[in-house]
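Example 399, ligand 4'-deoxy-4'-aminopyridoxal-5'-phosphate.
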Amino acid sequence: MPLFTKFEKLARDRTALLSSGIDPFGAPIEQIFSPTEALINGQRIILAGTNNYLGLSFAPECLRAAHEALDREGTGTTGSRMANGSFSGHRALERELAEFYGVRSCIVFTTGYQANLGMISGLTGPGDVLMIDADCHASIYDGCKLSGADVIRFRHNDAADLRKRLKRLGERVSSTLIIVEGIYSMLGDRAPLADIVAAKEELGGYLLVDEAHSLGVLGTTGRGLVEETNVGERVDFVVGTFSKSLVGIGGYCVSNLPELDLVRYVSRPYVFTASPSPSVIASTRAALKLVRDGKPLREKLWRSARRMYQRLAELGYQLGPEPSPVIAVTVDTREQALAFWYGLFEHGIYVNLVFPPAAPGDKSLVRCSVSAAHTDEQIDRICAAFATLKPMLASANAT
Ligand code: PMP
């Protein structure tokens, strides 16, 4: 098949998508006013799909740290961590993240995506086993491909299914890495972490938890589901990202295992890419302190998240199984989801549109994320738009 034949359907779909004048997949933000407000397509919009859970993207501490680092160290490192791209700030952030989790060591990567790619392909290879929750993020799936290990999926959030599959592995369990997420990115539900840890301890294997959406959101000091469930010491690797609660860009893995440091030498997504810019590292270090001390922000976040989840549930929307700052409405067809997304946009609300396969199952999602920076009035306006638009999904999405 000629190279571009496979793009023909995509091109047709895209033309249809753009006929309404604004691209739901990448509409440029023309001006950003605050963590919750921006100008898009000439319209002042409430941002309700940013993953900016604690609303820290304009925190003066982060801005100041970034400005100072920019002036002191320049715009970029121009190199890999393994060559000229390890600055003292990268090492300091690694120490601070390790301290935050109370573990021996940490590796900082250039994005959260690369943290998963780098850890999974660094730890496992052909002959090893990756046992992953079926709803894991694309970066975990891509890490599995890069690794070349055998991939076994267990049913989403089903520790009994995980147990069954671990038992079948026999001796291979010693070279098995189990992977789950803290809060799942699409439906906002949490892993049954205590049960998963118990299965690992009884049957074997190593456990990696991706806390991309739970860092800053769960736990007294914001360490995520490992803190909330009090199983931190029993999890082998925690991966996270700087791009959500930490409001920068980058990723990390922390672990108590002494071998973690060796992964640097074998992980291609660590070795063959440039390291995060000094200003990003500096703002992330400042944000980490705000996350750690951010209990009041977490309380505010959860109050708003529960209120919005409850309101949307009362309206009859089909939501994820539990209240969470990630609130996704499941919609049967792409066309309905697209029309609904435009409807929200016309009401001045920006959310995420998710088509399969990025959404679990073959449904589409209109995905919101709540921020501690949302005012009560903004949450009310978001809920009011959902109330007005409910008839659009009335027949297809009745509960
Ligand atoms: N893991 C999960 C669960 C995610 O949802 C994401 C991004 N949405 C990533 C990893 C990748 O993070 P980043 O955007 O920092 O590359």
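Summary: Residues 111-113, 116, 137, 139, 181, 185, 210, 212-213, 241, 243, 251 surround 4'-deoxy-4'-aminopyridoxal-5'-phosphate (CB under 6 Å).
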